[in-house]
Amino acid sequence: MAWQPVVKRSVSADVFEQIAADVLSGELSPGTALPSERQLAEALGVSRPAVREALQRLAAAGLVAVRQGDATTVLDYRRGAGLEVLPRLLIQQGTLEPAVARSILEARLHNGPKVAELAAARADREQLGAALDRTVAALAAETDPIARQRHALEFWDHVVDAADSIVFRLMFNMLRAAYEPALAALAPLMTAEVGNAPGYRDLAAAIVAGRPNKAAEKARALLEPATTALIDALDGH
């Protein structure tokens, strides 16, 4: 591989991004020993402290193992990394990765109905109802496909808050972080779903009415058709 000189202001962050990209793309395979700190610093044109800081971040992300007095080795990110690597996996070298996009859509379809069910059981209905009404109205009035996706994300942000689950909140944060950079690429595929204002309105009504089973049903009805179509499109069907 060809290491590139670092030119960004945050030197250690750029070192981190270069190595992380090579690990996540598979160019650096699990078990590969990285060059020493000194060799990396020379190849990248940066200081050894910057390299050391980047390696510590890579280790914290579950991408490498740093052992004192031994070589830093690449780990299998599928075994040790967390959801924070999703944004980097979804868009690699400016290209949407279909397999990662499919996984995100599958997780969304699995989690969405449960989050809606919890929101219906736990929400402050008056406060949530007003927030969802505003969001659905904005979604219905919008014509720009990317802006519509943002309104849809705002809708689910309110629902996740109402579900009062820290695990679902953190999962949503990471899925959203992965999804947002791909809004433009996904816009043609998401048109049907984010254009379905009545579907969002029905889901909001079920949640605000405090009907957990109905909310889960409406969430699946909203998410499943577009998710299936998106997965088929990504798989080339």
UniProtKB/TrEMBL annotation:
Keywords: DNA-binding, Transcription, Transcription regulation. CDD domains: WHTH_GntR. PANTHER family: GLUCONATE OPERON TRANSCRIPTIONAL REPRESSOR, TRANSCRIPTIONAL REGULATOR, GNTR FAMILY. This is GntR family transcriptional regulator. It comes from Nocardia puris. GO terms for molecular function: DNA binding; DNA-binding transcription factor activity. The keyword Transcription regulation applies. SUPFAM superfamilies: GntR ligand-binding domain-like, Winged helix' DNA-binding domain. The lineage of its organism: Bacteria, Bacillati, Actinomycetota, Actinomycetes, Mycobacteriales. InterPro entries: GntR_C (IPR011711), TF_FadR/GntR_C (IPR008920), Tscrpt_reg_HTH_GntR (IPR000524), WH-like_DNA-bd_sf (IPR036388), WH_DNA-bd_sf (IPR036390). The keyword DNA-binding applies. Residues 9-77 form the HTH gntR-type domain.
